[in-house]
Specification:
The chain is α+β, with helices and mostly antiparallel strands. The chain folds into two domains: about 110 residues, 60s Ribosomal Protein L30, Chain: A, CATH 3.30.1330; about 140 residues, Phosphoribosyl-aminoimidazole Synthetase, Chain A, domain 2, CATH 3.90.650. It has nine helices and twelve strands. The strands form two sheets. It has a seven-stranded mixed beta sheet with strand order 7-9-6-10-8-11-12, with helices on both faces. β1 and β2 form a beta hairpin. α2 runs parallel beside α6. The longest helix is centred in the N-terminal third of the chain and has 19 residues. It is globular and about 55 Å long. The chain starts with a helix and ends in a 10-residue tail after the last strand.
């Protein structure tokens, strides 16, 4: 089993109240706020060999925005904790990356913390507003639901492979460094759906999304590989590569038919597990502890 899942189960079992856990965002319904937190660590999630301080900052914000978008909420505010060995030049370039990204998405920086450390660590808390929106949950997939997405899978992982091979720039490298987000689609879903739905972003890979939704909803998910949007012919990267940040959505056919831009890739059925072209696939996903 993924070590992260093991640790999360220990945390859930240890807490006297774990009712807010289980999705990428916690929902404070009395305030209509979705809250998420993500950490990016040097040599685990990024390397200065491949990315500048500006690019690291931009991607750190995009990763967190993506979680809020996948909840169905609108990102509004962030707080940033930064630890590492940095100087004035680094801080200027890093926060220029922060500023340019939050301006694009109309997000306000509320504050944060700066601490000395051996390696760079970026910790971001993000808050989103879901007034007049229906938020998602991994538990909401039901028999007969459509499995849908948009974007493309495998391109970010291909970009990282190209960087490791010594390439400096191409389409896939840019996709890895500056992944597109799909706020128009996620906002549309949250605004128009009438039935409960499940939505995640593919930060840890398409298969990871399908697996987690299937497990939480206690259903079987069947996907047709040929229907998955992609620009590469590498099944391993398409299914397991990660860092594409595409929304993966399980929703009723009634709701699916209302939303332009969604691509049907599969169906939810009774049963358990994830099947690609009728073949059951065991869990594989990005581990934050390897």
């Amino acid at each position: 089993m993924n070590r992260e899942f093991e640790f999360l189960k220990i945390i859930s079992d240890t807490l006297s109240d774990s009712s807010f856990l289980g999705d990428d965002c916690a929902y404070l319904d009395e305030y209509k706020l979705a809250i998420s937190k993500d950490c990016l660590i040097e040599d685990v999630h990024f390397s200065f060999d491949f990315m500048s301080s500006y690019e690291i900052a931009r991607k750190a914000v995009l990763v967190n925005i993506s979680d809020i978008l996948a909840s169905g909420a609108k990102p509004k505010y962030i707080l940033i904790g930064l630890s590492g060995k940095f100087n004035e030049k680094f801080v200027k370039e890093f926060y220029q990356g922060i500023n340019d990204t939050i301006e694009k998405y109309d997000i306000k920086l509320l504050g944060g913390d700066l601490v000395k450390g051996d390696k760079l660590a970026v910790s971001i808390t993000i808050l989103g507003d879901y007034k007049k929106r229906n938020v998602s949950s991994r538990k909401n997939a039901k028999d007969g639901y459509i499995v849908a997405t948009t974007g493309e899978f495998g391109s970010s992982a291909k970009g990282l492979e190209d960087l490791k091979r010594g390439l400096k720039d191409n389409y896939f490298i840019q996709y890895h460094k500056n992944p597109p987000l799909f706020n128009n689609i996620t906002s549309k879903v949250a605004a128009v759906v009438k039935n409960p739905y499940a939505m995640m972003d593919s930060s840890d890979g398409l298969y990871d999304c399908l697996y987690q939704i299937a497990a939480k909803s206690n259903v079987r998910i069947d996907v047709n590989y040929d229907l998955i949007p992609k620009k590469i012919d590498d099944k391993n990267l398409v299914l397991f590569g990660g860092e594409d940040y595409c929304p993966v959505i399980c929703l009723s056919k009634e709701d699916f038919d209302k939303i332009d831009g969604l691509i049907k890739i599969g169906i939810v059925k009774t049963g358990k597990g994830v099947y690609i072209d009728n073949n059951k696939i065991d869990y594989r996903g990005f581990s934050h502890f390897e």
